[in-house]
Specification:
EC number: 2.7.1.121
Bound molecules: adenosine-5'-diphosphate, magnesium ion
Number of domains: 1
Order of helices and strands: EHHHHHEHHHH
Strand order of the largest sheet: 1-2
Radius of gyration: 16 Å
Distance between the termini: 10 Å
Structural class: mainly alpha
Helix content: 55-70%
GO biological process, one term: glycerol catabolic process
CATH architecture: Alpha Horseshoe
Catalytic activity: dihydroxyacetone + phosphoenolpyruvate = dihydroxyacetone phosphate + pyruvate
CATH superfamily: DhaL domain
Pathway: Polyol metabolism; glycerol degradation
Number of helices: 9
Organism: Tepidanaerobacter acetatoxydans (strain DSM 21804 / JCM 16047 / Re1)
Length: 207
């Protein structure tokens, strides 16, 4: 796999498309343990991203990812905006001025994203957040090299298992933490949107 700037924009547009398709589902999940806006927040953010990056085909991959991050921070009001925004900005820093990415950039990009979210939100695994989907995926991608599509498939599966795992645990961060034990039994919206994005990337590079 080699992904140039124009193809990176296409991948991000596919992420935006799948977020859009899951808007109501994500909002429904957030209505159980939050304030019923996660799908609305993510949809609004990625609509803005879509427009912002449409003319960036001649820019390097780092600049594109950083623009995604800054757009999410400035358009999404909820907790997820600064968290995912920081993730994309960190990913952009990690990639730098490259004009082409390959499979071995995946662990670098996603590890930088994970560290960004942890730095900003101070959450660890097991607290019913985005981290519960993202960290298991990063662990898979870092376990062997070179990275290939099979390993990415396994990483997406690990993220999906992470989403399932959030159903059984107590939320310790964000709005859902106000519910304490009553948050048990509900799937975390942020972990779910993270899985949806990873699955979108997998689909995009698989075809
Ligand atoms: P808000 O809670 O401000 O309405 P959203 O509904 O858009 O924002 O996002 C909620 C999601 O954000 C949660 O489901 C959770 O996964 C994620 N989240 C909240 N706080 C943190 C944190 N400190 N670290 C990582 N993820 C978090
Ligand atoms: Mg919310
Ligand atoms: Mg909110």
């Amino acid at each position: 796999m080699a992904v140039n700037s124009a193809e990176l924009i296409e991948i991000i547009n596919l992420i935006a498309h799948d977020i859009q398709e899951n808007k109501d589902f994500l909002t429904e999940l957030d209505s159980a343990i939050g304030d019923a806006d996660h799908g609305i927040n993510m949809s609004k953010g990625f609509k803005a991203v879509n427009e912002k990056i449409s003319t960036m085909g001649d820019k390097d991959c780092g600049s594109i990812l950083k623009t995604v991050g800054m757009t999410l921070v400035s358009t999404v009001g909820g907790a997820s905006g600064p968290l995912y925004g920081t993730a994309f900005m960190r990913a952009g820093q990690a990639v730098g001025a490259k004009k082409e990415l390959d499979f071995n950039d995946l662990p670098i990009i996603l590890d930088a994203a994970l560290e960004g979210i942890k730095m900003r939100g101070k959450a660890e695994k097991g607290e019913k957040t985005i981290i519960d989907a993202l960290e298991p995926a990063v662990e898979v991608l870092k376990k062997s090299s070179p990275v290939d599509i099979k390993l990415m498939e396994e990483a997406v599966k690990a993220a999906k298992d992470g989403v399932e795992y959030t159903k059984g645990i107590i939320a310790k961060k964000g709005r859902a933490s106000y519910l304490g034990e009553r948050s048990i039994g509900h799937q975390d919206p942020g972990a779910t949107s993270c899985y949806i994005m990873l699955a979108a990337v997998y689909k995009a590079i698989h075809d």
